[in-house]
Amino acid sequence: MTAFAGTGLLVRLVLRRDRLLLPVWVVAIGGVVSAIASAITSVYADPAQRLALGAMISGNPAMRALTGPVFDPTSVGGLIAWRATTIAAVLTALMSILLVTRHTRAEEESGRAELIGAGAVGRHALPAAAVLVASLANLATGLLIGLGLSAQGLPAAGSLALGLAIAGVGWVFTGLSVLAAQLTEGARTANAIACSALALCFLVRAAGDAADVEAVSWLSPLGWAQRLRPFAGERWWVPALIAVAGLLLLGASGLLARRRDLGAGMMAPRSGPANAAHSLRSPLALAWRLHRGALLAWTIGFAVAGAVFGTLAESMRDIVSDNPRIAELISMVGGGDTLVDTFFATELGLCGVVAGGYAVQAALRSRTEEAAARAEPVLSTAVPRWRWLAGHLAFALLGSAVILAVTGFAAGLTHGLRTGQPLTEAVRILGAALVQVPAVWVLAGLAVLLFGALPKLTALTWAALVTFVLLGQLGQLLQIDERVRAISPYFHLPQVPGGQFSAVPLVWLAGVAALLALAGIAAFGRRDLSGD
Amino acid sequence: MPDIPAILISGLTKRFGAVRALDGLELVVSAGEVHGFLGPNGAGKTTTLRVLLGLLRADAGHAELLGGDPWRDAVELHRRLAYVPGDVTLWPTLSGGEAIDLIGRLRGGLDPRRRAMLLERFALDPTKKGRTYSKGNRQKVALIAALASDVELLLLDEPTAGLDPLMEAVFRDCVNEERRNGRTVLLSSHILSEVEALCDRVTIIRDGRAVESGTLAELRHLTRTSISAELEHVPADLPGAHNLVVNGSQIHFEADADRLQDVLRTLVGCGVRGLTCRPPTLEELFLRHYQVMAS
Ligand SMILES: Nc1ncnc2c1ncn2[C@@H]1O[C@H](COP(=O)(O)OP(=O)(O)O)[C@@H](O)[C@H]1O
Ligand SMILES: [Mg+2]
Q1: What integer best gives the mean pLDDT of chain B?
Q2: Closest-approaching ligand to the CA atom of B15
Q3: CATH number of B224-279
Q4: Which chain B residue's Cα is nearest to A284?
Q5: Measuring CA to CA, which of A359, A460, B4, B223 is 20 to 30 A from B248?
Q6: ipTM of the assembly?
Q7: Which residues numbered 3-32 in B keep a CB inside 8 Å of some CB on A?
Q8: How many other C-beta atoms can be found within 10 angstroms of the C-beta atom of residue A120?
């Protein structure tokens, strides 16, 4: 077991470095679930109301795609599990991915792992320590959820099951990100691989749940979490499935780790050209080199997601015709077209917040470059600071517009191919997707402002994004004041397609984004360059 | 033109929170000279260079670079200078050759013939990706990007820290060529032999303050000469001698420059059979400064 020597020491090191961050994650996730539980308990106290909500969800594939099905609408717990599982599971998966990468691949990349590797520490100790701490964090999250729910008077078995489901998703993604860390040399790429896997799992589950194909939903760990059925006849064998899946992923990464050198990835680095291309002569050209890989990956991912949504959209109509009672309800509000449009509007809203993630990471690439001391060589040439920063900002702004346009186009096209108007639909949904862009730009502007004014606190942009997502997803349910919900730029977007379009909020949002970005650029021009 | 100093710093102060990185620094570098900027780790060398590059803003004091203001005129000044950071980090996905070209072009262009010549002399493979270079090779990338461009001033921050002795020799040749071409070089270092071998003038910095500045000869003048002598009889008292060690008829000591006359007179009276005088190495000079300061 010498390969694991020193793990205990490293666990303490990891815990020390993350002593603030981890409790924040754990408590935030536990708090979200608790808030959902108390809101549902008070809003849906009446069984009739719960049944109505259950019927509404069964009839609304757009909603099911977002949150999954309701297994037991008769109980408060069943509704809580329906509403809380996906949000909490995605957050827990993100916590695990970021934690594992930060303490494995990022350590190797920075060379700190070499310092540790040279000490009396086994070759698996670094990932083992990260896995242990991630598991600890996942268990704490699960425990907090379980205790919080039973403290609100919900059945103990269901509370425990929901906690286990969330911790289980964290466990699977812990394994997955250790595997991703073996595949590449860069922490960014490792994070990107693991987050893409998370997005894919979400998409597969969303497609399966929207189209009501159980077998598809079972392909995704997020689907497993729901199908543990907390508060709805718990299936206690699902945690075993989750445990085995995580172990398999860890075993696979252990095998890979044995075959590579410290610092190296499985994908061997290729050599590059001896001379730079003629075009590589400006900060923008450098930014293109740094951003193009990520932009391409996001574009492909969004195109696939758009195509999936487009393929599902037409099936919204079938559900209507299947169920006469719902059909009647639907025709009162505008018929099958309304359902299709609502589906698109919901899914595009989701794409909008995910594109916000792209914009934030692209804008914060400036901070990554600065902290790694790669801004210094550029800024000691004849490049003004604003031009260097503008290069990164350009990718945040244009890149997010591109990926949203591609999503809309792919969604409209695939939908149009079924309805017989591919081009009309492609253009229509593309336009609707672009409506998300100004809200995304506000996030990019915020990132630039923080970068310029408070470079050590740029991570707050991510906190803002998570806050906006939670406000959007849960604001109504938790009866949060409209004025508070209005701090999210997404709150102001018109609901299109289908709803009333107004350009006014879009112009406002774009203006706010521009102001934030300009203030950030100005502040950056005045401050010291700083490392990490 | 040579009358205008390439770098003129006076009373420069820079604080990072509670740390005073620069504390009233004085530094003058004349155009056309190779100036050594010598100091232990944490003395403030890198901070000084970053202020000169407009990457940091000084809290107080005056700094002038090629006749301009390093903060306000940063972009124009940067066309006329090249910088080699102490800790070179490269873009993981760009090859070394691409990084050299990019940095050179962003500065305003570089000479392809010099670039090819330098690649050969430094034996650098430009096709490797940034993440696969060792520290020394990353340093070479930055050095080649700086040396291949046609600039008036080179700011080099401990440029040989990662180079092997062979490459250090190549680096010295290059700096000597730069001097012949009339370029000004500010070379920060804690490697004394390097400064001794390369520099016309030296400024020694400690705790953000210049403790000594001048030509090597001037600095030696200020310091003690090491003397070993073989004598017929050892004197009971040797006024002006420091750190006296007596070993039979052999004695070894150090003498201040202004007491040399007296000391030699005493020695002559003791029957000198053998005598070695050695000017202080920069090493001793340097160590002495810090011992004096520390005590
Ligand atoms: N960005 C910074 N933040 C805080 N302290 C710094 C920073 N940069 C330098 N220092 C401190 O300033 C002092 C001078 O550092 P530096 O200029 O890097 O010295 P040198 O290059 O001579 O080794 C050191 O005490 C160092 O710790
Ligand atoms: Mg330094």
Answers
A1: 90
A2: 1
A3: 3.30.70
A4: B106
A5: B223
A6: 0.85
A7: none
A8: 10
